[in-house]
Amino acid sequence: MMDKYTKLQMVGIYAAITVFLIFILLPFFEMFMASLRPLEHLFRSPYQFWSDDFSFQAYSDMWETVPLLGRYIFNSVFIATAVTLITMVFVVPAAYAYARLDFPFKNGSLAIFLGVNMFTGAVLLIPLYRVLRSMGLLNTYWAMIVPGVAFLIPTGIWLLRSYLEKIPRELEEAAFVDGASRMYTLRRVVLPLATPGLIVVGTAVFIGAYAQQFLFAITFNQQRELQPLPAGLFEFIGYQDVTWNQMMAAALTGILPVMLIFLFLQKYLVAGLTAGAVKE
Amino acid sequence: MGELMTETTPASGHTAALQAAGKKAKSLPEAVFAWMLVGPAMLFIAVIVAWPLAETIRLSFMEAGLGGEEYVGLANYQELAESRRFHQTIIRTFYWMFLSVALKLVLGLIGATLLNAAIPGRGLFRVLVMPPWIIPMAIGMIGWLWLYNGYFGVLSGTMMSLGITDKPFEFLAYKNSAFYSAVVADVWVGTPMVTLFFLAAMQGVSRDLYEAAWVDGAGRWYRFRRITIPQIMPVIVSMSLLSAIFTFNSFEIIWILTEGGPRGATTTLIVDTYKTAISNFKFGEGSARAVIIVILLGLFSLIYLNVLKYVNRKYGTR
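Structure tokens for the assembled complex are given below, as produced in the milestone run.
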């Protein structure tokens, strides 16, 4: 058959995948190894790959060194979830309008949305700081949620729009003929059909929101209890000594919940993207 | 918004209500309805992005700091135009972008091809490739920071035991090695997303095409070159430009690894902007740099849209 590989080809494919995965997973492996080493050992020279004094001690000590660690992990997931939900509330109607309706300045306004993709928060940090201050949002969860939403709306519209375009028009037209209003059609006909697409776009937005918390957190929030994990991790630095092993342990523990969520959703993500979100 | 459709409807059964609502809603012009849907998102962007952007442009004509503001006209821009260091930063930024994007595309294409092969275990491999994309960048960079360390990192350790160097090598301490080390870390962050999108595109290619070519005796390499690549070309183009914009603006990676050092070797435009505006409180000069970034990326996205249009016409996606 066409898909059959010779033994040699199989070996080649697996070898190549192994090399690829080593590159991808090496930093995680290194963090794990560092988390197992006692602190005195970490700075021992020359470099030793393996040694007998490995232990999981750091994984229990870290909660005492940084008492708010659990809170940071929670904050990270909480902020990303809030950003995702709010972003979707803005994205769904707008994406529908761009996929289906005809209106003045359609292309112009879509170009403006996409133009936002060209900035990162880093360019607009100073005025953004002033905007958030004048709205009284500094040092609250909102200071990290609001900019996150703004920078993810364009991506969300872009991805969901191409998904919605794939849904057959006939169903909506049938609803129209039956006398359903536009809003009713959107809520009761289009949204249920678009659920797989909503999951894909929602996951992509969540990943974006989760991965990019650091900058907004260190700039717009001074409240320690509200910090997300990436900012909170830097607390392991700056006490009497840097407890690198605990920092690594905390980082790995902290990303675990989201890795598990992703594990459940990744099937939809790959399948959803295949369904057409990228064919633009 | 439910009130909109029901306010004048007599309570005369579900269907009647629907029909009445339908008539009323149909009198709602499409354009008005569309802007009701787009409006909230637009307003949000206007407040959080457009207004700060306008403010950035205004500040770029000011000498501004913690003390106050003073209009200086084009002085900030003139200073940048004459600064050799700034020219080098622009060149470095484009070099950074092209190198990193090229590597991401090549690796993404190889990765997607491997993960698309019909072999046992590919479901697992697909999951294992994703972590760099889904974890916070700052956390991934802590891992790389450790990897690049001369005394504790596995890279330097392995090089020493292989006899490549005889003393610990600090990857981030020398100009060249720091730059390329940052590129590698950036490629590491960006590759999974590119891989995933290429993989999705490859799975969208019709099997009939491959089978027809296979029946005609076309080999794997031929099928890859003549079917896969042309079929996924639109995605390659859109990903390469999207990824170019991300890479151009990539801040956290460089900031955590090197803060733009050593001696400016990893200072890209975005890092330069942040350093000037946030670290040194020179808001005016920082804003001028930000405006230049926006202009350069604006030009870039114009090219993006035109290339996309050309490719879509040539390969006809839909």
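The CA atoms of residues 106 and 169 of chain A lie 19 Å apart. The two ends of chain A are 32 Å apart (CA to CA). Further analysis is deferred to the final report.
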